[in-house]
């Protein structure tokens, strides 16, 4: 009987040790946002592989605030940007400011649910933040599942033409690399405020098929 109790106690202690080790490993493996996020919260991802001209990332599930815009023209993008910016600054039903984050993402979906082309602009919402209720019916919350994304980086003040050109180059490189992808949609991500003129970090994203 005594030996049986000792055996059970030893098993219990071993299990506790294993749990403590797992917890320590989890805390030590906290994700650190890359430098181009400039100290702001960014969507959490893991770099799966780095190729010559693009990177393969695995993004965790994330939440965004988004609004549809008429096109990818600069005037439409700016109108959507400021609408979301003021929402984040407290222009919502809760009159609550939301933590500034990166990036701002313009999404283009050639095969949307309504059968036509859909363009939207989105701001990332930090993990654990309760999204304030919009007072504008054109603003909505968007929950994105975990996904594998191919990313191409470019600099400068990004224009509509720059984004389209870099998306095309990324798709060509993916075809050469034999990487299957969803050709019906892409996203352009900007990590800098509009008034930052130098050392800008821009990305285009294409989703793995």
TrEMBL record:
GO cellular component terms given for this protein: cytoplasm
Classification via InterPro entries: Reg_factor_effector_dom_sf, SOUL_heme-bd
GO molecular function, one term: heme binding
Cleavable signal peptide: 1-32
Keywords, in A-Z order: Signal
Pfam families: SOUL
UniProt superkingdom: Eukaryota
Family recorded in the similarity comment: Belongs to the HEBP family.
Protein name: Heme-binding protein 2
């Amino acid at each position: 009987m005594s030996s049986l109790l000792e055996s059970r106690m030893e098993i219990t202690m071993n299990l506790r040790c294993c749990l403590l080790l797992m917890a320590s490993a989890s805390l030590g493996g906290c994700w650190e946002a890359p430098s181009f996020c400039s100290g702001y919260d960014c969507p959490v991802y893991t770099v799966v592989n780095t190729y010559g001209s693009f990177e393969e990332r695995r993004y965790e599930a994330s939440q965004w605030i988004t609004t549809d815009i008429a096109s990818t023209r600069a005037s439409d993008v700016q109108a959507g940007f400021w609408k979301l910016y003021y929402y984040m600054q407290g222009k919502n039903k809760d009159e609550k400011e939301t933590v500034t984050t990166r990036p701002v993402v313009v999404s283009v979906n050639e095969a949307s649910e309504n059968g036509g082309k859909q363009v939207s602009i989105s701001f990332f919402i930090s993990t654990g933040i309760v999204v304030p209720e919009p007072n504008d019916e054109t603003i909505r919350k968007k929950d994105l599942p975990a996904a594998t994304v191919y990313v191409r980086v470019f600099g400068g003040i990004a224009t509509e033409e720059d984004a389209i050109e870099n998306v095309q180059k990324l798709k060509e490189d993916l075809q050469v690399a034999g990487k299957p992808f969803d050709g019906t949609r892409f996203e352009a991500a900007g990590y800098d405020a509009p008034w930052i003129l130098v050392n800008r970090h821009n990305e285009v994203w294409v989703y793995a098929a």
